[in-house]
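Suppose a colleague, Dr. K., hands you the sequence of a protein chain of 225 amino acids and asks what its three-dimensional shape might be. Before reaching for any lab equipment, you can write down a predicted structure in token form. Begin with the sequence itself:
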Amino acid sequence: METEVINAQEVAVAEESNGRGVRLMLYVARAVSLVFTPFYLPLVGLAALFLFSYIRYFMRWQYILLVFFIVWLFTVVLPLLTIRYYRKFLGWTRAEIGRKERRMVPYIISIVSYFMCYHLMNMLGLPHFLSSIILASLAIQVLFAIVNIWWKISTHSGAIGGVAGALTAFSFLFHFNPVWWLCLIILLAGIVGTSRMILRQHTLSQVVCGFLLGFFCTFFVIIFI
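The predicted structure, expressed as tokens, is then:
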């Protein structure tokens, strides 16, 4: 009898430990998804461009800050706030708005915001290699919105795949070695993709296809357009 009680206590402790582990894993997965939101792709692309290329030596820091502010306003603040108010208005949670049939309006909001940013940068006469990052991000949003009609694909993986594609494209244009940074991005892509699967938002195929589509879409837009 005493042995059975001890075994029951061990089972209860194990179940409690497993429960804590699962909760911690979910918290970490949610944090990763929030930190690596797809809306930061253009900012990361700009940061990589200014970091690795020689153009930072020919632009004033005030000019660089202005570019970052415009991109941040139209690709992060505007779409995030609009999607948030849209979700609150309908009473949906983040998980509920993530369903395939409910993702189209957020895609449209993002596409409109990115197009406004691209149009404004052209009106201000900013160099094409800067606006090409926004154009590549816009192309990803349009492509993923079309794919989402039939199949739910991972926008998070598409965004970080776009970062890898932009880094590779700029390495060709500005002649630098991107290998170590690409290794870091691929590692982050694995972490982000795993978090999306842990949260039951995507399958492995949706994560992998999202990364590949984001990579090649961004690479070809920056190189050829």
